[in-house]
Amino acid sequence: MPMNPTFGGELRRLREQAGRTLHDLARETNYSRSHLSRIERGEKRPSVALARRCDALFRAAGRLQELAEEEPPDLTEALPLPDRPLGRRGLLTAGAASLIGYNFPSGAGSARPADISLADPFRVQLEQMRRLGQSADPGTLLDLLGAQTRTVARLAVAQSSSDGAELLVLAAHFANYTGWMAQESGDNRAALDWTAKAVDLAEAGGDRDLSSYALVRQALVAFYDHDAAQTVALAGRAQSERLPSRIRGLAAQREAQGHALAGDERACLLSLDRARALFAAAPARTGADPVIGTSHLTDPAAMVTGWCLFDLGRPREAAEVFDRECLRIPDHALRSRTRYGLRRARAHAAAGEVERACEIASELLDLTVTARSATVTTDVRNLARELARFRTLRAVRELQPALSRALALTRP
């Protein structure tokens, strides 16, 4: 093997070693023979998607992907970890304004009946906001969510120790969801800032579990920035055995996505197995505490398995998983249905089932305006890029007007 092989040269070497012709490779990857020929000759740069499929086909363990992609950006400065939490006493003495930009009053709260919890109405409101977040523009919710975070935290510092701690943790859940909406709005910096606020509020309320989940959220930001190493590192730090099984399961599946992004199939599948086992071991949700992580996927590990299989260059298997799991998403979860449905369509297109891909996409593209977000925008663009290779097919031509409208209108 040459000291510094090119992608094209290495692809040709692996293809010839496997006894395949360019025609064979075109049929198995659903790329044209002429396109592959130009890549082997170094006349055209390969996509990471093609590299992943060829890695899977030739069992190259991510070697082709390494040659295809650029050096990933260093996110150590762009994605700082939260500062050391203040603790509740520090929160009260330093002033919560340092955390959430609000001037808290001092003094005791007004008396109320012992059997009435201030937290209950806000829990209901958080669930309603999460439901609203499935269909509303995430950017329009940020001010409201930020205000509610401040309101709950303001009430917390005026209460007794136990009531105040409960409200601080609930404020942390509001801050955590605000961070997710900020990310869906395309503002990763604000997403990380709100996640850091959630950590401080959770620690101040005595809840270390939610502060550990913040690492999973940071790993998701790194994943969407295509930084596999940072995704794996952050997710790995959120898998301490002292943490609840659900948080560890969410972290394990995020780690699996990082491994898939890096083309490490074995590590990815092991992480997915661990995620499934942890979700199975997690106790059923009881009480009124807000759910941590997604609340709209019946089996999060199964859906993430489909995503990982696609990133590992196995689109046909990914499509089979998406076909099954997308049917289980509730009707009201518009953004989840749209996001995963578009990935389902992309997997079918990558597997050469273009008419099926267009059929699925045609049912979703109108929803992309209602369920608009940064992630949905990315999924629309990725689907358009996948279908562009089949632009001469009738199904793609007929879908093009709706796809063009979605591309024009889906903005974070």
From TrEMBL:
The record ties this protein, via CDD domains, to:
HTH_XRE
PROSITE patterns, A to Z: HTH_CROC1
Q: Which residues form the HTH cro/C1-type domain?
A: 11-64
Among Pfam families, the record links this protein to: HTH_31
- Which InterPro entries did the record assign? Cro/C1-type_HTH, Lambda_DNA-bd_dom_sf
UniProt-recorded name of the protein? Helix-turn-helix transcriptional regulator
Source organism per entry reads: Streptomyces catenulae
